[in-house]
């Protein structure tokens, strides 16, 4: 289960990179949302509140 979560996180990191012209104007929005999700996963893993890590 943790390897699936790791693959999903890596794909989300790649998707947050601004590679195309229209996505360069988005700013830090997609990566900011991804950072919040990663922080929540780390907190859940440290407190053992159901995170599959």
TrEMBL record:
List the InterPro entries.
DUF3309 (IPR021738)
List residues traversing the bilayer.
28-47
Keyword set, alphabetical order: Membrane, Transmembrane, Transmembrane helix
| Name of the protein described by the UniProt record | DUF3309 domain-containing protein
Q: Which organism is it from?
A: Hyphomicrobium denitrificans (strain ATCC 51888 / DSM 1869 / NCIMB 11706 / TK 0415)
